[in-house]
Design brief:
single chain; 76 residues; alpha/beta; 3 strands; 38% helix
């Protein structure tokens, strides 16, 4: 079982929140981190859905992403 699932918000075949929902169904309890440039498309339903997941907007530096991943990973 993975420690963390990370997905881009926009992909060619599905949105990041759809992918996150699918990944969460396959690996319940595993944290899902959504990264992307435009995370809020002004649709309240999308914004509410994204609040169920950890999100990290672009642009970011590698060290910032590493810090976010460490923050999201379960402690222990």
């Amino acid at each position: 079982m993975p420690d963390l699932l990370m997905v881009r918000h926009y992909t060619e075949t599905m949105s990041g929140h759809e992918a996150a929902k699918y990944l969460r169904s396959m690996c319940p309890g595993v944290p899902v981190l959504i990264v992307g440039g435009i995370l809020d498309d002004d649709e309240l339903t999308n914004r509410e859905f994204l609040q169920r997941f950890e999100v990290f907007p672009k642009p970011f530096k590698a060290a910032e992403l590493l810090d976010k991943v460490k923050d999201v990973l379960p402690k222990g």
